[in-house]
Design goal:
- The protein is an alpha/beta fold.
- It contains 9 helices and 7 strands; from the N terminus they run H-E-E-E-E-H-E-H-H-E-H-E-H-H-H-H.
- The chain is globular, with a radius of gyration of 20 Å.
Length: 248
Amino acid sequence: MAELGSFPGLAGLVQQARADLTGDALLRDGVDGLVVPRADVEVDLDLESYGGEVYMWGMRIHDPQGLTGEAGTRYVIEEMADLSADFDPAEVFLRAWEQIADMRRRGEDAGGTLAIYSWSGIETWMFRQYAEHLPQPSDVEELVTDADVWVDLMQVVKQQLVLPLRGRYGLKQVASQVAGFRGWDEVKARHGLSALDGEESMLLFAAAVGMDGDPDPGAAEALLAYNRADVDATWTVREWLATLDLRR
């Protein structure tokens, strides 16, 4: 009888079926133990865009030792957003870049480590698109290719784990269905939203900046809350991963 290894992809399908049936997170074949990059200062980064351009780079900064500022957890979201119809994506990016560069300098000066976490690679792609606005565009490539600093948490999960999600590894699935995150539900309830996704984000932006009438402050508040929920979600997934005791 042929072994599973004789059929490329079949072993993975069997593992996925096992995870779905048991409801357990499993180590992928060939992975001896779960490794999640951590640092003294951890930054969760999430963008919001409209018309293919980014108007917000929200950050959740967890810095318990105060290496880059006040000790604890702080959010830099509204400062990294331009909620206007004629927003300048280059200027918004430069603000975000300076924030990150400043944290890296402070962290290094204090002898600490810093890691920036995002989900699915869109932040990486957009950083590369805006690199031309820097005096040294190659600085972006240096950052996003440093695996100790720039971490795509989705790839950390997908490359090491099989989750009971029928093969769906979007942030909303992983955070809410296995990591227990409820932040998006709270945002929907607080702001009277029936959905909270990319399409709803664009509708909220149009309302917030007054594209079809007067600017709606409530829509602006909902956008900021949505971004905060997104960065809280990647943090929650990372903390959940730390609770897993999986090894061969």
